[in-house]
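chain below, 106 aa
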Amino acid sequence: MLGRWVALAGDDLVAVGDRHLTRPMVAAVGAIEVAVHGWDVAVSCGERRPLPPLLAEELLDLARLFVTAEERFVRFAPPLAVPPHAPAHDHLLAFLGRDPAWTPFR
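prediction:
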C-alpha cells in the first residue's frame, strides 16, 4: 500500500512545521510511525506480531535516512545492538531505540 501511494503522490511539497517535504517523504515517515507505534501498542497489550520482513527492511532503510544524529536524541533513544542475523524487524526497532524483546510483563 505504501509503495502504491508513494507512486501516485507526485513530488508536491508538504509543509511540516518549518520544513517542506515531498509527499513520498511524508508517506515514508508516516509508515515508520504507524508500524513502530503499532508495535508499541501491540506489545503493550501482550501481542507479539513482528512486521513483515520486506516491510521492515524497507522501513529500516528509510529510517536510516530520516533519523539523523541531530534528531536522534531529541526524538529517539540511542540505538540498541541486535545480532547481525536478527530479523529486519528487530533491526528496525533497535535502530529506533526499542528493545525487540521488550515485554510489559517483566
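The longest strand covers residues 13-16. The radius of gyration is 15 Å.
thats it, cya
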